[in-house]
Write a structure and sequence with these properties.
The structure holds two protein chains of two kinds. Chain A is α+β, with helices and mostly antiparallel strands. Among the domains of chain A are: 70 residues, no CATH class; 117 residues, Enolase-like, domain 1. Chain A is 38% helix and 23% strand. Chain A has a five-stranded antiparallel β-sheet with strand order 4-5-10-6-7. A four-stranded antiparallel β-sheet of chain A has the order 11-12-13-14, with helices on both faces. A three-stranded parallel β-sheet of chain A has the order 1-3-2, covered by helices on one side. In chain A, strand 4 and strand 5 form a beta hairpin. The longest helix of chain A is centred in the C-terminal third of the chain and has 39 residues. The radius of gyration of chain A is 22 Å and the shape is globular. Chain B folds into three domains: 113 residues, 2-Layer Sandwich (Aldehyde Oxidoreductase, domain 4), CATH 3.30.365.10; 173 residues, Aldehyde Oxidoreductase, domain 3 (Alpha-Beta Complex); 328 residues, Aldehyde Oxidoreductase, domain 4. The chains are: A alpha+beta, B alpha+beta. The interface between A and B is medium-sized, with 29 and 32 residues. Bound molecules: flavin-adenine dinucleotide. The site of flavin-adenine dinucleotide has 30 residues of chain A, from strand 2, helix 6, helix 7 and strand 10.
């Protein structure tokens, strides 16, 4: 490892040469965050962080211009879950999807993230793939992203002796592109505390039921205001635009209103209108547009049914109380 | 009959332990001292003329030992199971993206790959021929000297016009089925070397070592006895390794370098290069009387065989043979065409033409039953073929027909009997969602010819050895592709020799040490090899009565010739023996999202007597998975002859989440008189009916008939929205 020198730029020609020349790929494992940022400071352009490898290793042409792979799966700082000042939940992005699904603190404070991470790939992929990889890969179909968007998460990235913080959606600058610089590592996501009783769902449509990327996905987070309506509604869509979208139009439709079939239909239509999808090998733009509305409908039906059930229980408990 | 001790039971597979421990050596696991890695330069275009090939830059790459082109093929630069129309290395023209233009052998795989990128091929790009209908036109540019129609057939029974005149319902539909990949776990692989006796040896993944031997010897201009081929174990084949894949290329490298060589195709290369299931278009018109009697089946079948023949002709023959399903139809007219195009390359695949035809005829049967308001199973039962009836192509069914038995068994099964209850169940869904969830139950019945059929040499020779310690060795040249056949052989040998199963060993698929037992295809090995084992055992027992067992034991060989029909309608046409099956499927459709889930499948299979029960069920469950794939997920996509999805990220296979936990396999054991212990075969029947059963269940669920596979959520949603309008 070099001790001097900042990140170097590489021009296209050099990169091509390297691809042809079959450079040896070095694989190193670092366990301290500081070591990672130090390393990136000197060798950032040649290095690739590889916590789980579930995106990188199946990618079309792995590590074409990167010849140092840094295994960061054992960096303990990246695996921390803490609750800080003002109730802000900090989730280290080194956690695997399954570790997130199983985490009791995250369950209490960011259930929606668990719902989304629980739908990633398969148990094998969830055991390997990390939140950091999902963010670093920056696919519009990354399942954790719509959930984090609803949770108003902020992304913290660390460089050598500096930290930067981003609003989640401004972190993504395009499909596969982020604001991350070559000498930085994503450290954590910060999720503010929410008041009241939350309801949430994450729905995705894929090409099959297991091991599949989202053709379209919908995350919703809201507060149960009255027995019948929602407030503080957030809706985000995945895989229907170059990056994940928050959909204020849908949020406004639902805000404070009773979840009647007509309102749900209105929200679903707004959802379909807001989508800006493409045709590709996985699906069609038409289908994606329709199915985001369908997924929202399905999720809202479930919430409405659940709220009705709670209401019935509350009433019958009250009745029983009175009888006594 | 004596009670059977091992046949029909569930012994542990002979290879279970080695496979579970990871000790079994597959072709891709083999490594030899000093071996070279071989990589293939494949065509850059679906259709082009080769102007020049410049290998100098490739040969200069460090570690490269040789770069071979067409001029280095010492024998006939052509191969193919039936017609040798495929070059080992192309010299003047390429006809699909998988065509091999040059071979590179190097000390490392990386060097070989690098050299591949440096072979310079200049092409004159030609317009790809992608539409079979256009390819058939007389003025279409010809892909092969004989024109683009590889094979055509016309068969007639009775007079369909008369049949349609008498019909109360007539259903007409056009069906389209996609190209399907075999998606075996292990891609094509092997090693080659000169063995101690100086034979050029190829250890590979093929399905018929003796035919591979012939094809290698022909291409290398060697006498047969100078070539040895082995292929005992491979990680799945399903017909996709029936044709030559890596064998000749490996042999060529060893021939030129005198060094051992190894090849393993990457998944992308595998999907681009090997034979697939023929995509087909099928036009059907069928009629039935008011009382529910089938009166006429007319169909036109167009099968796209792609760049080369392989088994395109016989596949079309089976498509025609099975065009009317297991039913008695007085009037039939079928026209079939197998056509060359630049859409990849097709050949053998589980079902072998029946798969395609079954999708169409079983959809037609369902539509007719609906139009007549008849129960779909009863309608099938009322029209089913029996022994002595004349089949669709007008020959007599001379062996036992199990079709009716499987239909009746399906009718008694839980899924069909209580289908109303299954269809109403919405307990997995909430109250508001329930109205959007639709369920349906569908059935499909089918028959599947066993063996290669009339006119193709079809026999199995085996060797049986009895050693002084009482152990029995079976030597047969068929391969263990994962299906469990070797275990079935051992069970039959144990049974007829009266020894415990542990005393039996199976040695497989080696042209030097095992006699020619024929192909590992066409649902034939348990039946054919089993019969030969029984014959050899008789002879061996007689020998044992006559003389004492010496140190090397006693060995006998016997050959079983498969009985065939007494008429010949074409290559492999027709069959004498058939397996039968009826499938029942329960599906659930989410009409909001269009998503389909297959919730349960019941399989009623007549493969004769079951020899290896666990293997039988394994075949059935795998068949269900593959049938679901064909119905709902799998399709090789092209853009003007270029493959679009060459890996499993975009070629979508069903996962364990997409295959129901609830698969019930019920053997309907109609014992075949000529079968060993009454056995036939089941490895194709178990898949073919699954796909149309799902299509029929979808119709039952949402009232929509899908005629194009695979049926995706996109198609369902479009259909549902159209109906709402
Ligand atoms: C079969 C299969 C199914 C899948 N299904 C899904 C699915 O359903 N939903 C879904 O969202 N994804 C899915 N994926 C994609 C993938 O599993 C996820 O995106 C996963 O979260 C990636 O995590 P990883 O740790 O494996 O990433 P890696 O592949 O190791 O890394 C991905 C990228 O992120 C960068 N990176 C990783 N961590 C950091 C960090 N801390 N700081 C900066 N950069 C970083 C890496 O350098 C790399 O560029 C699937 C993948 C496969 C193979």
């Amino acid at each position: 490892m070099k001790s001097e020198g900042g990140p170097k730029k590489q021009d296209g020609k050099q990169r091509r040469k390297r691809r042809r020349a079959h450079v040896m790929v070095a694989f190193i494992k670092l366990t301290l965050l500081e070591a990672v940022t130090e390393f990136l400071w000197s060798d950032g352009p040649e290095s690739l962080l590889i916590p789980g490898g579930s995106d990188i290793l199946v990618g079309p042409r792995p590590f074409t211009d990167k010849h140092i792979l840094i295994d960061i799966s054992q960096v303990t700082e990246l695996k921390k879950v803490t609750v800080g000042a003002g109730g802000v939940l900090s989730v280290g992005v080194g956690l695997t999807h399954q570790e997130i699904v199983d985490h009791p603190v995250i369950r209490r404070r960011a259930r929606l993230l668990q719902l989304a991470c629980g739908r990633v790939g398969s148990i094998q992929i969830r055991n390997r793939g990390t939140l950091g990889g999902n963010l670093g890969n920056a696919s519009p179909a990354g399942d954790s992203i719509p959930a984090l968007a609803c949770l108003d998460a902020r992304v913290v990235v660390a460089g050598r002796s500096r930290r930067r913080e981003f609003d989640l959606l401004s972190f993504f600058t395009g499909p596969g592109e982020t604001a991350l610089q070559v000498d930085e590592v994503i450290e954590s996501v910060q999720i503010p505390e929410r008041e009241g009783r939350s309801v949430a769902f994450f729905k995705k449509a894929g090409q099959r039921r297991g091991m599949c990327c989202s053709k379209a996905s919908v995350a919703l987070l809201a507060r149960r205001r009255s027995p019948k309506s929602l407030s503080d509604v957030r809706v985000a869509l995945g895989a229907v635009a170059p990056t994940v979208l928050r959909i204020p139009e849908v949020e406004q439709v639902l805000e404070g209103r009773r979840l009647t079939p007509a309102v749900i239909r209105e929200a679903a239509e707004a959802c379909s209108r807001a989508a800006n999808p493409i045709d590709d090998i996985r699906s069609t733009a038409d289908y994606r547009r329709q199915v985001v509305g369908a997924l929202l409908t399905e999720g809202l039906f479930e919430i409405a049914d659940h709220m009705q059930l709670l209401e019935q229980r509350r009433r019958s408990a009250k009745r029983r109380g009175r009888r006594r | 009959m004596k009670a059977l001790k091992t046949v029909g039971r569930r012994p542990r597979r002979l290879d279970a332990e080695a496979k579970v421990l990871g000790e079994l050596v597959y072709p891709s696991d083999r490594c030899l001292e000093g071996m070279l890695w071989v990589e293939v330069v494949r065509s850059a275009h679906p259709h082009a003329r080769i102007e020049s090939v410049d290998t100098s830059a490739a040969a200069a790459v460090a570690g490269v030992v040789c770069v071979l082109t067409a001029k280095d093929v010492p024998g006939e630069n052509a191969f193919g199971i039936q017609i040798q129309d495929m070059p080992v290395l192309c010299h003047d023209r390429v006809r699909y993206m998988g065509d091999a233009v040059a071979l590179v052998a190097a000390e490392s795989r990386a060097a070989a790959r690098e050299a591949v990128a440096r072979v310079r091929v200049d092409y004159e790009v030609l317009e790809p021929i992608i539409d079979p209908e256009q390819a058939m036109q007389p003025d279409a540019p010809a892909l092969h000297p004989g024109g683009n129609i590889l094979h055509r057939g016309h068969f007639q029974k009775g007079d369909v016009e008369v049949g349609f005149k008498k019909s109360a319902v007539i259903i007409e539909r056009a069906y389209q089925v996609p190209m399907m990949d075999h998606a075996y776990l292990e891609t094509e692989a092997g090693v080659s070397y000169y063995d101690d006796s100086g034979s050029l040896t190829v250890e590979s993944c093929g399905q018929y070592v003796y035919r591979d031997q012939t094809q290698i010897a022909r291409a290398l201009g060697l006498p047969l006895e100078k070539v040895r081929v082995t292929a005992p174990y491979t990680g799945g084949a399903f017909g996709g390794k029936d044709e030559i894949t890596v064998q000749i290329h490996l042999a060529l490298v060893t021939y030129h370098t005198k060094r051992p060589a190894k090849m393993v195709l990457s998944r992308d290369e595998s999907i681009v290069s090997h034979t697939k299931r023929h995509p087909a278009r099928m036009w059907y018109k069928t009629g039935a009387s008011k009382s529910g009697k089938l009166l006429a089946v007319w169909c036109r079948l167009v099968s796209d065989t792609g760049a080369y023949a392989s088994l395109g002709g016989p596949v079309l023959n089976l498509m025609m043979e099975h065009c009317a399903g297991p039913y008695l139809v007085p009037n039939v007219s079928v026209d079939g065409f197998a056509v060359y195009t630049n859409n990849g390359f097709s050949g053998a695949f589980r079902g072998f033409g029946c798969t395609q035809a079954c999708v169409a005829i079983e959809s037609q049967m369902d539509l007719m039953a609906r139009a007549l308001r008849r129960d779909p199973l009863a309608f099938r039962r009322d029209n089913v073929l029996h022994k002595g009836d004349r089949a669709a192509l007008d020959y007599e069914m001379k062996t036992k027909v199990g079709a009716e038995a499987t239909i009746r068994a399906a009718g008694r099964g839980k899924l069909y009997r209580t289908r109303g209850k299954f269809k109403r169940d919405r307990s997995e869904h909430t109250r508001s969602m329930a109205p959007y969830i639709k369920r349906g139950v569908g059935v499909a019945s089918q028959m599947q010819g066993l063996g290669l059929g009339v006119g193709l040499p079809d026999y199995a020779e085996v060797e049986l050895n009895f050693s002084p310690d009482g152990a029995v060795t079976v030597r047969a040249s068929t391969s263990e592709l994962g299906q469990g056949a070797y275990t079935a052989y051992a069970q039959m040998a144990a049974e007829c020799m009266g020894v415990p199963l542990e005393k039996v060993r199976v040695v497989g698929a080696d042209t030097k040490t095992t006699p020619d037992s024929g192909t590992t295809t066409a649902s034939r090995t348990t039946y054919a090899v089993g019969n030969a084992i029984l014959m050899a055992a008789g002879k061996l027992r007689a020998e044992l009565d006559k003389r004492a067992v010496g140190l090397e034991g006693i060995s006998v060989r016997e050959t079983f010739h498969l009985p065939v029909a007494d008429v010949k309608l074409g290559d492999g046409l027709p069959h004498l023996l058939y397996s039968y099956g009826t499938h029942v499927a329960l599906v659930e459709v989410n009409t909001l999202t269009g998503e389909i889930a297959v919730l349960a499948v019941e399989a009623y299979l007549d493969g004769g007597r079951v020899i290896f029960r666990t293997g039988f069920e394994g075949q059935s469950e795998g068949g269900v998975a593959q049938g679901i794939g064909y119905a709902l997920f799998e399709e090789v996509l092209f853009d003007r002859g270029r493959f679009l999805n060459t890996n499993f990220d975009t070629y979508i296979l069903p996962t364990s989440m997409d295959v129901p936990a609830d698969i019930r396999t019920v053997p309907v054991e109609v014992k075949e008189d000529t079968g060993p212990y009454g056995a036939k075969g089941v490895s194709e029947t178990c898949m073919v009916g699954v796909t149309p059963a799902i299509l029929n269940a979808l119709h039952d669920a949402i009232g929509v008939r899908f005629t194009r596979l695979p049926v995706r959520a996109e198609d369902v949603l479009r259909a549902v929205l159209e109906r709402r309008r």
